[in-house]
Write a structure and sequence with these properties.
Elements: E1 2-11, E2 14-20, E3 25-29, H1 36-48, E4 67-75, E5 80-88, E6 93-97, E7 100-102, E8 113-116, H2 122-125, H3 128-142, H4 144-164, H5 170-208, E9 217-219, H6 227-244, E10 257-260, E11 263-264, H7 265-268, H8 271-293, E12 298-301, H9 304-307, H10 310-317, E13 326-330, H11 334-338, E14 349-352
Parallel strand pairs: 3-13, 3-14, 8-12, 12-13
Antiparallel strand pairs: 1-2, 1-4, 4-5, 5-6, 6-7, 9-10, 10-11
Helix pairs in contact: 3-4, 4-5, 5-6, 5-8, 8-10
Bound molecules: adenosine-5'-triphosphate (ATP) and magnesium ion (MG).
Length: 359
């Protein structure tokens, strides 16, 4: 899969902007504030329905525009489809595929992307919730079943939390406890399976790049998987949950850990170790998505040389030979050319963005 065309209307600094991409390496270059990250953000929204910079899509609407509309044309060997995501300042969102409206979750996994950007460093150095969100997004991309199971769980969790705020009777809360245990068990079972697949992809990636000593592993940190035990946990926590007004234990509070040489990277990792771990995680993500969806994801590399140094970027650049569409942003072309990437070839191109585009 690759993105062929992108049209952004009322999005970030763009009133109206259309871009065309090649199936190989695309280098988007331009000075600070010219809209490079915004372009990758638009592609990311068309891939998963969400931004990687903000949880509030309305923030991405161009300041003088009433709404924003993103349209992407995605092509694979077999087909071509047009995905559009529109959103308004009052949080209404519409997603269409070939002009037919679909549920926002529908676009997951169809046009997968792998994003390597400074913002993604939070996967190794951020909070457990940052990591959980990352794995939930990745797993939702590789497994539609995981996504629907997670959506079901979140619906039940929301209802239980509403009830907790109303000082419920034991009978009322028990009904929701059972539903929560049922959906939580399904999430945990699927999550564990997918963590294992991710770990395998990570081990393979480390070996491939001769980084055997880099033991980046994922520890799911799952609480009890036995439904009965989780029901007991909920019972034990009940008074606490009523006081807090929300459910304190469950899949939504798992604490994934990234290990570097067997130790928690968050507490022991040097800056360089954080960076290399992120690259390996991203390469593993690429591998997993490719295997599971039988679709080659588009690699989005934002602010490349801020995220990687020359040596570390080699592992990423080795991917570029394998028919992978890659969209790189950088302030200039020099560093890219120094890496031996020929931009004027048939499958590669450069796109120059100017700061104050008169669209
Ligand atoms: N909602 C918005 N409305 C109007 N302009 C916005 C909005 N959000 C962001 N911008 C502006 O859009 C511009 C492009 O931002 P972007 O982050 O894409 O730049 P960039 O090319 O990646 O820059 P850098 O090289 O510094 O990373 C910035 O000047 C930013 O202030
Ligand atoms: Mg940027």
């Amino acid at each position: 899969m690759s993105i062929e065309k992108l049209k952004m209307s009322g999005f970030r600094n763009y009133k109206e902007k259309s871009l065309e991409f090649s199936p190989g390496v695309n280098v988007i270059w331009g000075e600070n504030g010219s809209g490079k990250t915004a372009t990758l953000e638009a592609i990311h929204i068309l891939s998963v329905g969400r931004s990687f910079r903000t949880a509030r899509l309305q923030e991405t609407i161009e300041k003088n525009s009433p709404h924003s509309r993103l349209v992407g044309v995605f092509v694979s060997e077999k087909n071509k489809k047009e995905v559009a995501v529109s959103h308004t300042k009052d949080k209404r969102k519409k997603v269409t595929i070939n002009n037919a409206e679909v549920q926002p979750a529908e676009i997951f996994g169809q046009n997968p992307t792998v994003l390597l950007s400074p913002e993604e460093q939070k996967i190794t150095n951020g909070s457990p919730s940052d990591r959980r969100k990352y794995f939930d997004k990745t797993f939702s991309t590789v497994s539609k079943k995981y996504l629907t199971t997670l959506i079901d769980y979140n619906k039940v969790l929301k209802q239980r939390n509403i009830l907790l705020k109303k000082t419920p009777t034991s009978k009322e809360i028990e009904t929701w406890d059972e539903k929560l245990v049922d959906t939580a068990t399904k999430v945990w079972n699927k999550r564990e399976k997918l963590y294992k697949e991710f770990e395998k992809a990570l081990v393979d990636t480390c070996e491939l790049y001769g980084k055997k000593e880099v033991g980046v592993l994922i520890n799911s940190g799952l609480p009890k998987e036995n439904p009965k035990e989780f029901l007991e946990v909920l019972k034990t926590n009940r008074q606490k949950d009523i006081v807090f007004g929300y459910t304190t234990a469950g899949p939504h509070s798992d604490r994934p850990v990234v290990l570097y040489n067997g130790k928690n990277i968050k507490t022991v990792g040097s800056q360089g170790e954080h960076k290399i771990s992120l690259v390996l995680i991203k390469l593993a993500e690429y591998r997993l998505i490719k295997e599971a969806t039988k679709t080659t994801p588009t690699f989005l590399l934002d602010d490349l040389f801020a995220t990687l140094d020359f040596e570390r970027s080699d592992a990423v650049f080795s991917l570029l030979e394998k028919n992978t569409q890659t969209i790189i942003t950088n302030t200039d072309l020099v560093d890219i050319k120094n890496h031996g990437i020929i931009i004027d070839g048939k499958t590669n191109k450069s796109i120059h963005l100017l700061r104050q585009c008169k669209n």
